[in-house]
């Protein structure tokens, strides 16, 4: 939680930095931009795995990019998260501070990570952190965890698209272990429009640290390769089929191997997109699959995080419409039907995504 006083203090500090840095950067282009997301998400589930919930809120990220040269940029700014109905005006406020090295093809970032406002295409099933699959990263984390800090390496070439990150979430204290997640997602292809691409994903969530002995040291891995087939069809539009073989290795206590659970699963997703409409159908079948940040609908767990049933099946049908009321504004409306172990559920979402370039100058 963050008090309004602290939020104002951060905003004032950012304004002071912008004022005093301008004379010292006489030949350096400076860009000020704003990314903001407004969301309303409602889920109704009737199975003993994931509880339904209603989430409304927004987050904003103000960036001031000081371009030192064509291979080095200093980014300063402010991030804020609001949840409608909360007793707190601001749930989370953090300073944005990052050193960005390299080019658009290869970027190395240390500090506040570049999570982006849209990692993949439209549709709620693709709105996850770092474009991970839902069994590795539940979709609602994208709302509540849009701020990350650590180290990142992003590649964007004709043949390789890759995101490698280390997100340090909690330092170790006498009360709790340190916490971080790290991973990579990527795509190998002959060209950006090639009909086939090889995919891969990996994430680990780790609780540990050596300074204090405050609970077990744990690791939760999820990973696997995949393949993407895509083709533009005359009546359907841009059609795609993804298939992944995924594996999990959940070790809640390194001192007790009897608690370790190894799982595996198969994920398939078919989608078609045309004129701002996207329909998708996905299927998941697994055995003993557990991952700390995954969607419980995909995991072999019940509400209390105990193993419920080794075998898990999950299916989903969804339809999304993208509206473009302005060149830098996206508005999405979507609805989904979920079948979890034979139990039917539904969800719907409204989302507004905005990017604004507020100011750009090469001061002299």
What does this 3D model show about the protein?
A 16-stranded antiparallel beta barrel has the order 1-2-3-4-5-6-7-8-9-10-11-12-13-14-15-16. It is mainly β and 364 residues long. It contains two helices and 16 strands. Helix content is 7%, strand content 58%. It has one domain: Porin, CATH 2.40.160. The mean pLDDT is 90.
The portion of residues assigned to helices is under 10%
CATH topology: Porin
Radius of gyration using CA atoms only: 21 Å
Q: Beta fraction of the residues?
A: over 45%
Distance between the termini: 41 Å
Largest sheet: 16 strands, antiparallel, barrel
Runs in which pLDDT lies below 50 for 5 or more consecutive residues are none
Indicate the CATH architecture: Beta Barrel
Number of domains: 1
- SS elements, strand count: 16
Which geometry do the CA atoms define?
A: globular
Biggest sheet strand order reads 1-2-3-4-5-6-7-8-9-10-11-12-13-14-15-16
Order of helices and strands: HEEEEEHEEEEEEEEEEE
pLDDT averaged residue by residue: 90
Class based on secondary structure composition and strand pairing: mainly beta
| CATH homologous superfamily grouping | Porin
């Amino acid at each position: 939680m963050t008090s309004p006083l602290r939020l104002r203090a951060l905003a004032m500090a950012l304004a002071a930095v912008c004022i005093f840095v301008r004379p010292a950067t006489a030949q350096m282009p400076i860009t000020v931009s704003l990314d903001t997301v407004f969301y309303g998400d409602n889920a109704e589930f009737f199975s003993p795995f994931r509880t339904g919930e209603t989430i409304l809120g927004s987050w904003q990220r103000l960036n001031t990019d000081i371009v030192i040269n064509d291979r080095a940029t200093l980014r300063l700014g402010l991030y804020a998260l609001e949840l409608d109905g909360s007793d707190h005006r601001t749930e989370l406020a953090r300073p944005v501070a990052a050193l960005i090295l390299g080019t658009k093809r290869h970027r190395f970032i240390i500090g506040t990570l570049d999570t982006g406002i849209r990692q993949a295409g439209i549709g709620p099933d693709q709105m996850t952190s770092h474009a991970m699959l839902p069994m590795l990263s539940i979709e609602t984390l994208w709302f509540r965890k849009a701020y990350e800090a650590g180290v990142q390496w992003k590649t964007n070439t004709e043949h390789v698209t890759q995101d490698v990150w280390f997100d340090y979430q909690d330092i170790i204290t006498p009360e709790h272990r340190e916490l971080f997640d790290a991973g990579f997602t990527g795509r190998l292809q002959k060209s950006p429009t090639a009909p086939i691409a090889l995919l891969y994903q990996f994430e680990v969530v780790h609780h540990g640290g050596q300074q204090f002995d405050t609970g077990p040291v744990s690791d939760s891995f999820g990973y696997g390769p995949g393949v993407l087939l895509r083709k533009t069809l005359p009546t359907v539009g841009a059609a795609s089929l993804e298939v992944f073989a995924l594996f999990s290795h959940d070790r809640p206590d390194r001192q007790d191997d009897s608690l370790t659970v190894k799982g595996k699963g198969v994920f398939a997703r078919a989608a078609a997109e045309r004129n701002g409409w996207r329909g998708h159908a996905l299927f998941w079948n697994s055995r003993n699959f557990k991952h700390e940040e995954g969607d419980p609908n995909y995991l072999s767990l019940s509400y209390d995080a105990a193993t419920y049933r080794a075998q898990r099946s999950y299916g989903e049908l969804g339809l999304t419409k993208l509206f473009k009321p302005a060149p830098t504004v996206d508005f999405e409306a979507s609805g989904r039907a979920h079948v979890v172990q034979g139990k039917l559920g539904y969800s719907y979402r409204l989302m507004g995504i905005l990017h604004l370039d507020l100011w750009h100058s090469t001061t002299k």
